[in-house]
Amino acid sequence: MKTRKDVAKGESVIYWMRMQDMRIHDNRAIAMASSQAAQDKIPLIVLFIISPHDFEAHDRGSRRIDFMLRNLSCAKAELDKLHIPLYILTHKPRKDIPRKVLELMESWRATHLYANIEHEVDELRRDIQLFDLATKQNRQCSFLNDKLVVEPGTLKTQNGKEYTIYSPWQRKWLETLNNNLDRIKEAPSPSANNPATRDHSVYGPLFSSPVPEFVEGFQLATEDKARMEKLWPAGTEAAIEVLDRFLHTKSRLSQVGDSSPLAPGAEKSDTKSRILVYADDRNRSDMDTSSRMSPYLASGVISARYCIRKTMELLGKKTVEGTRGSGVGMWVQEVAWRDFYTHILAAFPRVSMGRPFQEKFAGVKWETDKKHLEAWKEGKTGVPIVDAAMRQAKTQGWMHNRPRMIAAMYLTKDLMIDWRLGEKYFMEQFVDGDLASNNGGWQWSASTGTDAQPYFRIFNPYLQSEKADPSGDYIRHFVPELRKLKGKVLHDPVSHMPRHEFEKLGYPRPLVDHKVARERAVRRYKTPGEE
């Protein structure tokens, strides 16, 4: 990225923090902004804009917004130590944001603004508009790649086209990364402002800009807020602790009931950390196998670069391990999936506009049974693994990846309900809601996306349940009606219990017969629009 040399020196430099880069360290835009401020010997100001219209447009839920505010509080405290003000502005309508940012640049006498790129269509259009407006006033707006390890547009097939299949894309991603490890090089931390900034007539008052306790329309209930604070502590230090626990502690059975990702009890281990056995255990929902880093990565509280560097440090290697044969390699591939889905979002923006990537499935006939949709949301489908997953989403604002896939495929294939309704619900519930990853996962499950599950491959939720939750602890924790059951009867009670005994459980019968539902799904996908 080049800075125009004809831009006059201002009296401050602005770093515009967004929802996807909420950290102070290893952040390219704030590093560049700080460097500019130090070079010009002027203060650095950090701006954050709360845009309720954007939250609504992207189906962001109250938990995600609450997590954002808590992370803002952590960032403000860190910046305060450096005498850098964090100015927080709530603004509507969202289409007017470029004009408002330019107005702030004028009032703060700033000629340089730095921000990290957001790859969603609306956000790209917003930034292009700001760039054009600023250029006309001889001001510089610089946008950097920070969210992704490898930026969109970098990886092409031999024919110069975008990859649409993950495996060859990932091999190219890994090769590109190892050929240029500067891509994961740590960005310098920002320098402190002169303490006199606090007494400045214009910049001093910015230090008192408060972090709102909530955003109107996105306020969490008191009990849910307390639960989210316990489950998902905010800030970069918490994110590093969660990652460290994944890298250096053993997997444990029956972790589904932990009150916090940082729950005590795991002994340190040099040989059997969770990441080292990740390839074998990653699909187990009844064990403490997931890194639980997704909320922190989605909010940019920690950089993907940092996570990859820590895996290299763990292995004592100077290259990135990304092969399927090792636990570390498998986990790094999960980090790569985040890049992949954002590359798809950038190259094929229709996927963020409610369109299937595989347009041939645009005419698939979806069911409109509202009772089935509500039963799925409430975890009352009569399929234990699906219900456990959905109740986890409702109570914890998060879900293990394998249950996510099972629950998503059940909605789209067994119930034949439009994947876009599931996509919206997950965004509303999850603290790790990310448009690209959420859309990519749903389109994969619905067989409408890139690298999609072939439409005729449909998860049998009962077999998936036995594989994902062999001990049954996951189901028993989230579906207490079944807490006394074990073995196959736990995974499919209606098929393994006398009717009178099943009815005593107080648990619903399955909404549909899986075999019949599967045949319906295959038929509709085979001839979309004809049934």
From TrEMBL:
GO terms for cellular component: cytoplasm; nucleus. SUPFAM superfamilies: Cryptochrome/photolyase FAD-binding domain (SSF48173), Cryptochrome/photolyase, N-terminal domain (SSF52425). Keywords: Chromophore, FAD, Flavoprotein. Its cofactor is FAD; (6R)-5,10-methylene-5,6,7,8-tetrahydrofolate. PROSITE patterns: PHR_CRY_ALPHA_BETA (PS51645). FAD binds at residues 278, 290-294, 331, 334-341, 432-434. The record marks 366, 419, 442 as: Electron transfer via tryptophanyl radical. The keyword Flavoprotein applies. GO terms for molecular function: deoxyribodipyrimidine photo-lyase activity; DNA binding; FAD binding. GO terms for biological process: circadian regulation of gene expression; entrainment of circadian clock by photoperiod; nucleobase-containing compound metabolic process; response to stress. Belongs to the DNA photolyase class-1 family. This is Photolyase/cryptochrome alpha/beta domain-containing protein.
